[in-house]
Design goal:
Elements (H helix, E strand, L loop, with lengths): L6 E10 L2 E5 L6 E5 L12 E8 L5 E4 L10 E9 L3 E5 L6 E4 L12 E9 L4 E5 L18 E9 L3 E6 L3 E6 L12 E9 L5 E4 L10 H12 L4 E2 L7 H8 L3 H13 L3 E4 L3 E4 L3
Helix pairs in contact: 1-3
């Protein structure tokens, strides 16, 4: 059976009364694209991109509609119904996305929106959702490093700030004193890894911290400073051009501009006659 919850590029194999049968050229598996989704112009053998999921009779079906969430993704969706079995979410497909009671962080109400994760229930082979999103993030093995630009999803506010999901993989914290805009659950935005703690907890920021957000020459000097003994370089704006170039491979003019920027950003201190020091935070 074709994988559920993802898009496939399939070949139109034949036209039948219920719709087009599409075939996977690699596996020879096929799926029906109902007439309601049939393109107005097509030829047998054409390729078409479709999303595959289960219809109301639990049979694989293809659609050209664009789902609001796919397999192993997070999304902020509206609850359109709730009953004794669970809740149902609008994900822009004919059949709503089901959320079992046990997968609701708290009871879902019709008309309210919730951050969910879409996954494949191995017991029923159905695509379902869960609002217990913390189950689906993992910080045991990190795929990000300091100062990486990352994609964030806001999960919920806390006393310290906002819990976020990083790159749809890890959990992180965005401190409220570094947020200068209104945020709400489900918001997606860009951020930067600010700090990785020994227990693999991640602090993120919406602004690039310090020198990482400034000009490349300043960044280059900071990288040399960080790798130097004691965070010190024995060069300054009065040093000979040859010594500056030998140390950081910059012209004296470029070097003076860069350290001026770093000084204004309070990333370094300058001691006349000695050199530049990495400022301790």
């Amino acid at each position: 059976m074709l994988d559920l919850g993802v898009k496939h590029t399939l070949v139109i194999d034949r036209d039948t009364p219920p719709g087009l049968f599409l075939k996977d050229p690699n596996s020879e598996e096929e799926v029906l694209l109902p007439n309601k989704y049939k393109p107005s112009h097509f030829e047998i053998g054409d390729q078409i991109e479709v999303f595959v999921y289960l219809d109301f009779d639990e049979r694989p079906i293809a659609t050209t509609l664009e789902p609001k969430v796919m397999l192993d993704e997070f999304a902020y969706l509206t609850c359109v119904d709730s009953n004794d079995f669970g809740a149902f979410l609008d994900w822009n497909l004919e059949k709503h996305l089901f959320v079992p009671h046990m997968e609701q962080a708290y009871k879902m109400l019709k008309g309210e929106q919730y951050l969910i994760f879409c996954y494949l229930d191995e017991q029923t082979n159905r695509l379902v959702a869960s609002s217990r999103v913390n189950k689906f993030v993992d910080n045991s093995i990190l795929t990000v490093e300091h100062f990486d630009e990352v994609d964030l999803i806001v999960t919920n506010p806390t006393e310290m700030g906002y819990n976020v999901i990083i790159n749809e993989i890890h959990s992180g914290l965005l401190y409220k004193d570094e947020v200068f805009q209104e945020l709400k659950t489900g918001d997606r935005l860009k951020g930067v890894v600010k700090k990785i703690r020994p227990d693999n907890k991640i602090d993120v920021s919406l602004q690039r911290p310090g020198y990482r957000g400034i000009e490349p020459n300043a960044k280059k000097i900071m990288e040399v400073l960080e790798s130097s003994d004691g965070g010190f370089l024995p060069i300054h704006d009065k040093s000979k051009p040859e010594l500056i170039y030998e140390t950081v491979h910059l012209s004296k003019k470029a070097f003076k501009k860069a350290i001026g920027t770093l000084y204004k950003e309070r990333q370094i201190t300058i001691e006349n006659g000695k050199g530049i020091f990495l400022k301790k935070n």
